[in-house]
Amino acid sequence: MAIYHCSVKNISRSGGKSAVASASYRAGEKLEDRETGLTHDYTNKSEVAYSEIFLCENAPSEYQDRETLWNAVEEVEKQSNARLAREWEVALPNELTLEQGKELVRGYAQSLADEGMCVDANIHWKDGNHHAHIMGTTRPIKENGEWGQKEKKAYKLDENGQKIPQIDPKTGEQKIGARGRKMWQRETVEANDWNRSEKVEEWRERWADHCNKALEQAQSLERVDHRSFERQGIERIPTIHEGYVARDMEQKGQTAERCEINRDINAANIQLSALEHQQSLFTRLLEQLKDKVKEALNERLQRLRTARTADESARGNADGNRTVQADHNRPAGGSVAERLASLRSSRASGELQQGTGKNTVRVDEHEKEVFTRSVELGKTQQPAGTGETIGELLASARTGIDSATAKEKDSGASRADREAERERLNRERERQAKEAEQRLAKERAERKARSHDRGISR
Predict the structure, then answer these.
(1) Residue spans of beta strands (DSSP E) within 148-215
(2) 19-27 and 66-76 helices cross at what angle (nearest 10)?
(3) Residue 39 confidence (pLDDT) above 90
(4) Which of 104, 162, 230, 410 shows its CA 20 to 30 Å from the CA of 29?
(5) Does residue 91 sit in helix, strand or coil?
(6) Parallel/antiparallel/unpaired status of strands 39-41 and 30-32
């Protein structure tokens, strides 16, 4: 399993450190500190598998020599608590070979050099503990090859970009310095962003990206993440750093407290993984059950829609047939005279055409109005040679029309009854579907309670 480790720390005189001594230990070389005259010899370190120096754009070529580079750093730093170098201590994934680890460290060290610092990279290839020490300078290098300033003083500006005056608390006015000069507030401005916490987070994320790229090129499925388990949303207990002393004790058959703590943490993490697996299984089963219930409900609803569509189609066909047949039974001709002639012929034969079979004559309101006006006209005009008035003929026709209208109203009432029955059936189906959903929800709750009880009993 690939393990992520990237710690960024300072090498400073306040901690009793020396840049030359640190470089000598990490590179496994013999270096002389020209300021103190001390010689640091770590040539007996056998685990140093790779060392290389990466220079920034404006660095002199002689800084390729490790002793020259770090003695120059010691010389330019004058303060007793000066920060001499910055170190990145990184773990190399065990899935990588030595050559792949070299390529990984080269790429990361070059990215740091591109930011303007000189970088000294060294790989320690210990059995089961492959790691690298990367040292970087803390000062930028100017275009002329000289060391630049870490920070400088500048005027403090307000939100409008104007200088902020120094106010005398006694007078409430701006202070006046030597030679009558006005005094302004000043602040320290760093030459770069290397000391910011956001930059450290960026470096850590960059190392994770380089590691994952190397693992992908090595065709490994392992990946690393620079974030903590808590930030990743993973329920795991982080292990503690063991160190070489604890591991050496374990190799000699002794029990190291740090290693024992990590073993307990790993055992607890295994239990957490098992619980998460069970939770994932229950969640997946619950989702499958939900899908089945939704599928069953959708199928029922589809059947209901299909039945409703069929009923509406049948009702529409029946209404259409009644309309067409009623239209066929209407008297031919469009004028009043032609209709009156048809009515006389029907009365002479002893029957008024109201419809045949199950169909009913449909008389609209326009026809009723025409016939009513014709009756009033017949009262004043009587055709020659007839034994009865036109009004009497139309009165007889009205009787047939009223009878047909009454039958049509009865047919509408029966249709309303059918609609009411259909609505009742639909409500009954919806009630049954709702009861089914409630039963399924109750069964799920009971199964969940039984699973919880079984978990507690275990």
Answers:
(1) 151-155, 186-190
(2) 160
(3) yes
(4) 104
(5) strand
(6) antiparallel
Q: What is the dotted CATH code of the domain comprising 1-148+198-226?
A: 3.30.930.30
- pLDDT tens per residue across span 359-406: 334 444 554 554 455 445 444 444 444 444 555 555 665 666 666 666
Tokens representing residue 277 in the block? 């697996």
The Cα–Cα gap between 316 and 338 comes to: 33
pTM for the model = 0.53
Euclidean distance between CA atoms 434 and 428, whole angstroms: 10
Q: Which two tokens stand for residue 206?
A: 């960059």
Q: CA separation (Å) from 364 to 337, 369, 370, 380?
A: 18, 9, 10, 26
- 373 phi/psi in degrees, rounded to 5: -65, -35
Structure tokens, 20: 């030359």
Q: Is residue 161 packed enough to be buried (19+ CB in 10 Å), middle (13-18) or exposed (0-12)?
A: exposed
Helix (H) or strand (E) holding 32: strand 30-32
Give the SS3 label for residue 147.
strand
Alpha-carbon gap, residue 366 to 195, rounded angstroms? 96
Where does residue 282 rank: exposed (0-12), middle (13-18), buried (19+ CB within 10 A)? middle
Question: How do residues 196-216 score in pLDDT, each as one tens digit?
Answer: 999 999 999 999 999 999 999
Average pLDDT, the chain: 81
Please state the domain extents for the chain. Answer: 1-148+198-226, 151-190, 329-456
Q: Nearest-CA neighbor of 105 among 256, 2, 211, 238?
A: 211
Locate 290 and state its tokens: 């939900």
Contacts of 296 (CB under 8 A, 6+ apart): none
One-letter amino acid at 375 equals V
Look up residue 170 and give its amino acid: K
Tell me if residue 186 falls in helix, strand or coil.
strand
Dist CA 148 CA 117 (whole Å): 11
Neighbours of 360 (CB within 10 A): 21
Helix, strand and coil content of the chain, in percent to the nearest 5, comes to 55, 15, 30
Query: With helix as H, strand as E and coil as C, how does 185-238 read?
Result: CEEEEECCCCCCHHHHHHHHHHHHHHHHHHHHHCCCCCCCCCCCHHHHCCCCCC
Calculate helix-pair angle for 390-457, 365-378, nearest 10 degrees.
Answer: 160
As a whole number of angstroms, the distance between CA 254 and CA 262 comes to 15
Q: What is the DSSP string of 438-452?
A: HHHHHHHHHHHHHHH
Q: How far apart are CA 200 and CA 293, in angstroms?
A: 52
With vertex at residue 380, the alpha carbon angle to CA 377 and CA 383, rounded to the nearest 5 degrees, is 90
Place of tokens 């007996």: 44
Cβ contact 89:5 at 8 Å = yes
Query: What does the block give as tokens for 1?
Result: 């399993």
Instruction: Tell me: pLDDT of 140 over 70.
Output: yes
